[in-house]
Amino acid sequence: MVSVFIRRELALLARQKADWLNPLLFFIIVLTLFPLGVGPEPNQLRIMAPGIVWIAALLSVLLASERLFRDDYRNGVIEQLVANRQALMPFVLAKIVTNWLSTGLPLVVISPVVAMLLGVEPAAFVAMMLTLLIGTPLLSILSVLGAAITMAADKGGILLALLILPLYIPLLIFASAAIEAAGMGLPYNGQLAILVAMLLLAFALVPLAIASALRINVS
Amino acid sequence: MVSVFIRRELALLARQKADWLNPLLFFIIVLTLFPLGVGPEPNQLRIMAPGIVWIAALLSVLLASERLFRDDYRNGVIEQLVANRQALMPFVLAKIVTNWLSTGLPLVVISPVVAMLLGVEPAAFVAMMLTLLIGTPLLSILSVLGAAITMAADKGGILLALLILPLYIPLLIFASAAIEAAGMGLPYNGQLAILVAMLLLAFALVPLAIASALRINVS
Amino acid sequence: MYFDSFSDFLAMGGYGFFIWLAYGLTYLLLIGLVAYCFWEVKAFRQHIQQKLARAQRIKQYQEADQP
Amino acid sequence: MFKWLHPLAKPEILYHFCGRLLPWLMGSAVLTLLFGNIWGLAFSPPDYQQFDTVRIIYIHVPSALLSMATYTIMAIAAFTALVWQIKVVQWAVLAIAPIGAVFTAIALLTGMAWGKPMWGTWWEWDARLTSELILLFLYLGVIALAGAFSDRQTGTKVACLLALVGFVNVPIIHFSVEWWNTLHQGASITKFDKPSVHPSMLWPLLISLLGFYLLMLALFCVRLRTAILQNEQHRPWVKSALGGQ
Amino acid sequence: MTEFFSAQGLSCIRQDRVLFEQLDLTLNSGELLQIQGKNGAGKSSLLRLLAGLSTPDDGTIYFQGQLIAECLEQYAASLCYIGHQSGIHEQLTAMENIAFWRAAYQLPYVDSMTLLGELGLAGLEDLPCHMLSAGQQRRVSLARLWLTNCPLWILDEPFTALDQSAIQRLQYRFRQHLAQGGAMIVTTHQPLSDGFSCLKTLELSYRW
Amino acid sequence: MTEFFSAQGLSCIRQDRVLFEQLDLTLNSGELLQIQGKNGAGKSSLLRLLAGLSTPDDGTIYFQGQLIAECLEQYAASLCYIGHQSGIHEQLTAMENIAFWRAAYQLPYVDSMTLLGELGLAGLEDLPCHMLSAGQQRRVSLARLWLTNCPLWILDEPFTALDQSAIQRLQYRFRQHLAQGGAMIVTTHQPLSDGFSCLKTLELSYRW
Ligand code: HEM
Ligand SMILES: Nc1ncnc2c1ncn2[C@@H]1O[C@H](COP(=O)(O)OP(=O)(O)OP(=O)(O)O)[C@@H](O)[C@H]1O
Ligand SMILES: Nc1ncnc2c1ncn2[C@@H]1O[C@H](COP(=O)(O)OP(=O)(O)OP(=O)(O)O)[C@@H](O)[C@H]1O
Ligand SMILES: [Mg+2]
Ligand SMILES: [Mg+2]
């Protein structure tokens, strides 16, 4: 069942290209605005680069997630899935997977190019890629949770940001700690291990929370 | 009639606080993420600050505008206004005014605080405020245009970003030029004058374009 | 009493500003919280009053509307 | 085992139970809090390293501990509410949230006022400080979320869910001093086997802590009563409860 | 005498599919034109053409003897169009929605409280519309018909979600409007009650 | 014998307003229960309670003699609920929407092409649903009823936007379902045609 649902989401993504192009474009735009706004001194850019990449990634995943359940909620799809019960969990999993495929993955794929343009050093670069690879699925899971929680709320966006950012911040702290360690030539396995642990824990527990959030929201 | 419409939009804003709190919160969050992601060295922050403030402002206005006509379009309000014709232009003007009131103004109000926290110097600070004061109405007008053009398009967001950012970039360039000049103690009247000219021109012409974009979109 | 005089007590060995700032803010917030909690009770009573009045109004309206 | 709790799940009984508890709690809270704080401010000795600034400890540590304890209570309540669908417990989650938020704010503010003389800076992006700030955001998030729904019941339940999810932050706060090397000092009184604080400071500290705790419970009673009334306002007993007073 | 409203040789093509071709219709004041047809026959598309929301692929529409393309402003001012979508904003209350439409049509002040009370919405005036039931939302959207004095009404399935008493009340309003010399074009899948003396029907057939 | 489906002492409170109180109902297999009432009487709210989407403020619901809270999974598996909203995604085609619901209900494979053809949507199978007319969208959403084999259907105003022939076809399907021992709960403002032998009605009154 999950695969059918994933195929549905992919069909939707193929039709509504905005849903994945938009975050990607947003990511790129944020990054290109920096040299324009801050001034293009290479040294400064190089130091800031990994942090900025992570911030941009975080924001674009956050923004993309707002619309995640909106259409399905308005059309009554979620309501009927909740009434049906058995299909809810596969639906949630499909949403998480496609959310990562559509926002996380493109960011991971594009970030080498971006890092190159901003002149990130090789060591920090590897760390950035690794943290992004581990961090973006976690970002996806959390933002699906946020979207589910605020689905029926009258004031979607702001709440989502308010709720989810606290959960994001540990991620940001560990990721930038790892990158910093890498930049100074220190080992950063510890930070990566924590990121992986966070990811696994989230993957085990959060889908349950998402399903019950959906259930509560339609009642 | 405009005033009734403005009152309606304000009532909506009072009800859907997300629509104005979200951009504001987004602005603040983007700014607080920087010390976390890039590292809290005061000198670096001070140099980057005005640029970051402008980028954050630009992004948050851009993001706020996506939903501008969405609800009214879905509910058939726009359709009926177009059928009615005479009420369309007041509606557009009301949208522009309230868009600025709800996204531009809060940013202008909050930016002194932010500038203080980031340690911007007084000269650059004045320039930043002035450019924001002139620049944000222009941002609003342009983003209402973008929202109107992409209203019925299935792929809202991305198109909006693509269409509007090229129009924003001159603004960003002049604004950051003015701030830079101020930071170095040079006069920056020239840049301000250009900004004002752009604003006036946009205010004279763009509403017509918006009205016709709406008309085309419902047919 | 640990301090020799009242002014000593206020000065707190030179750290008076920070200590009194901390205590002041704390008690400000606590008193505010207590006041808010009791104000809520009062506000609820008013709300109930308003609700009753409103129900009355609607009933009158419907009675007037029936015949 | 918890049979005696069952009647309390009935809103009406709980309302009156809280009503009876309230004066005692409130009175003892005010007394212990003032007693502990005055002892700490005026009668306890200063620290040999931190001088008189150490007197902030009598509000900073209780409020900081309480901010976490309150969150823990809230999370437990939220868990109970979601699993067993008990309505009064759902309301309790929302009743306690603002109290915790205020305690968190106090911990932050007093910490800042302490940090300036001790570390030379009001604020630092250090792990404990940041995670405590996040705790404040979580409290605010729970409150804001509950208000964001047109349907009060939905809002309450969703807020319970968030309270539960946000609990991960509490251990992070507590262990942050061990996981990262930070400015903030490590556990001293919460190491129960061997407290490393001198009794002359420990006692006023513990009494202040008790005071904060009692105050939390008292305010919790007040707010829970209001919440019960709000949610049960269509029931006949509410009218008599309101009229009876 | 020129007809109040007429159309000649209308055709509409959607997705390369001809919905209708060479359609003529006329409407005089005091008349009600009911457009019938199966689902997907093109009724809503026709109404949108007639309301000036889209331009026909062929054909001309006259209002009081003038091409509507030439008197757009005047035509728009004498038209009240309510489509499938309700045209009410879900976050606004019934009162606010009505105030908005009153301003948009520049209608005289009416006590919306009484109006809403008459429509069976007493006590719900200041709830956001998404808290109303389906039929109550529809009532709010149709409240406009009690305010307007436009001579031409174009309504797309006005009866959806309404209960029988509301349908009766709405039809009573229709008769009032027709008696005052108004004209109206309506689609509906539910039969109109008898008692419309000037009822014309137009059957659109579903063409593939 | 235990009843197929029954509810006792249901009450529902919305915004501190009591919609109904102490409501009892029973339903046996082969029966159709029609819930009637004015706009805003609480019909949709009742159906949502019965479908297990929200919990009643009071009262209990039994399915085959068991409390539904205790056999949620099993109850959900034997229930087909279609509410006011269609439950179809506007950007997906009719085919894709049906495939989605087939997967969600784990229904056996059916040739959706033929099914859609029978429902009068031949040739429109691969258009995104927002390009369909109102009634056609509704048909896509109701197509599920031809696929499912759940014994209990709960439908909220299934006839909206449908034309007469589609309504007839739908009622034919209702009869089939009832004949096979199914049961259903329906609200509608349009009268059901005669010929339902086991029709029960329940009238909800509009309470302020
Ligand atoms: C804004 C700044 C600060 C914040 C947010 C903060 C937060 C906290 C928190 C959350 C705790 C409880 C931790 C736990 O029990 O696991 C705590 C305890 C404590 N804090 Fe702070 N703090 C701040 C500044 C300071 C400063 C400047 C000092 C002193 C130099 C200090 C001294 C202590 C002490 C002694 C404890 C008790 C530790 C224990 O026994 O467990 N704090 N603080
Ligand atoms: N989401 C909601 N929040 C608060 N109140 C609501 C909500 N939905 C409905 N109500 C209230 O509940 C009442 C009953 O609504 P419901 O949708 O059950 O009516 P209904 O009988 O289905 O009416 P209709 O025939 O118009 O569909 C309405 O009067 C409305 O005010
Ligand atoms: N936005 C659109 N884009 C493309 N084709 C459309 C669009 N809207 C409708 N159509 C097509 O035009 C045809 C007629 O649609 P229309 O909405 O006019 O039907 P209708 O007669 O109003 O039907 P109903 O009784 O269901 O409301 C439909 O078959 C549909 O396929
Ligand atoms: Mg139609
Ligand atoms: Mg209903």
Structure, explained:
- The complex is a heterohexamer, with 2 copies of chain A (219 residues), 1 copy of chain C (67 residues), 1 copy of chain D (245 residues) and 2 copies of chain E (208 residues).
- With 67 residues, chain C is mainly alpha-helical.
- Chain C has helices at residues 6-11, 16-65.
- The longest helix of chain D is centred in the N-terminal third of the chain and has 33 residues, at 11-43.
- In chain D, helix 2 (57-84) crosses helix 5.
- Chain D has helices spanning 11-43, 57-84, 87-119, 127-147, 152-165, 169-179, 199-231, 236-243.
- Chain E has one domain (5-204): Rossmann fold (3-Layer(aba) Sandwich), CATH 3.40.50.
- In chain E, a hairpin with a 2-residue loop joins strand 4 and strand 5.
- The mean pLDDT of chain E is 86.
- The interface between A and B is large, with 40 and 41 residues.
- One adenosine-5'-triphosphate sits between chains E (14-15, 19, 37, 39-45) and F (124, 131-136, 161, 163).
Question: What features would you highlight for this structure?
Answer:
heterohexamer, A: 219 residues, mainly alpha, 9 helices, C: 67 residues, 84% helix, binds protoporphyrin IX containing FE, binds adenosine-5'-triphosphate
A few lines on this structure:
Chain D has 245 residues and is an all-alpha fold. Chain D has helices spanning 11-43, 57-84, 87-119, 127-147, 152-165, 169-179, 199-231, 236-243.
Query: Structural class of the helix and strand makeup of chain E?
Result: alpha/beta
How many distinct folded domains of chain E?
1
The value of Rg of chain A in angstroms is: 18 Å
| Spatial gap, N to C terminus of chain A | 24 Å
Number of helices of chain E: 7
Number of domains of chain A: 1
Radius of gyration of chain E: 17 Å
Largest interface: A-B, 40 and 41 residues
Q: Which consecutive residue ranges of chain A, at least 5 long each, have pLDDT under 50?
A: none
Classify the beta-strand content of chain E into a percent band.
Answer: 25-35%
What order do the helices and strands of chain A follow? HHHHHHHHH
Quaternary form: heterohexamer
Give the strand tally of chain A: 0
| CATH hierarchy, class of chain E | Alpha Beta
The amount of beta strand of chain A, in percent, is under 5%
| Unreliable residue stretches of chain E | none
Helix content of chain A: over 70%
Helix content range of the residues of chain E, please? 25-40%
Function (chain C): Required for the export of heme to the periplasm for the biogenesis of c-type cytochromes.
Pfam families (chain C): CcmD
Keywords (chain C): Cell inner membrane, Cell membrane, Cytochrome c-type biogenesis, Membrane, Transmembrane, Transmembrane helix, Transport
Transmembrane segments (chain C): 15-39
